[in-house]
Amino acid sequence: MAWDPAEKFRQLLQDEEFALHEGALCIAAHGCPGMDLQAELDRLHALVDRCDRSSRDGMLHSLFSELGFHGNRADYYDPRNSFLNEVIHRRTGIPISLAVLTIAIGQLSGNDFDGIGLPGHFLIRDRNETDVFIDVYAGGALLDAQGCEQLFHQITGGDKGFHPAYLAPVDHSSIMERMLGNLRAIYAQNKDYANLEWVLELRTMCPSVPAGEARQLGMINMERGRFDQAARRFEQLAQVAEDDDEDQLQRLATLARARMN
Question: For the segment 69-81, what is each residue's pLDDT rounded down to a tens digit?
Answer without folding.
Answer: 999 999 999 999 9
